[in-house]
Design brief:
Elements (H helix, E strand, L loop, with lengths): L1 E6 L2 E3 L5 E9 L5 E8 L6 E7 L4 E3 L7 E6 L4 E6 L8 E9 L4 E4 L3 E5 L2
Parallel strand pairs: 2-11
Antiparallel strand pairs: 1-3, 3-8, 4-5, 4-9, 5-6, 7-8, 9-10, 9-11
Length: 117
């Protein structure tokens, strides 16, 4: 199995920036997809962004141009840079690891992002 540890969440003012990190360990396969989801109170969990092993990224429309995902395969770590934070961005952000070979998903514990003035 895969273990995921997130860090970097916290409190930030509207329009501010934050950087999230997620380190994976365990049964890492070369061909995988890592990403970030978020869930606000009373809302469904939604995709924010994901990135394949070769560096190909995808973004939800709501964060395009503001958030940027990247990964460092030497560290098995994925990053999410959150810029120009809006009132609709606060949520618990969850790191996701998708093992393509058998379509298995692994989840981190989540790190909260709070936007407040």
């Amino acid at each position: 199995q895969v273990q995921l540890v997130e860090s970097g969440g916290g409190l930030v003012q509207p329009g501010g920036s934050l950087r999230l990190s997620c380190a994976a360990s365990g049964s890492i396969f070369n061909f995988n997809r890592m990403g970030w989801y978020r869930q606000a109170p009373g809302k469904q969990r939604e995709l924010v962004a994901y990135i394949f092993s070769d560096g190909t990224p995808n973004y939800a429309d709501s964060v395009k141009g503001r958030f940027f995902i990247s990964r460092d395969n030497t560290k098995n770590t994925v990053y999410l840079q959150l810029n120009s934070l809006k009132p609709e961005d606060p949520a618990v952000y969850y790191c996701n690891f998708h093992r393509i070979i058998n379509s298995r998903d692994f989840w981190g514990q989540g790190t909260p992002v709070t936007v407040s003035s």
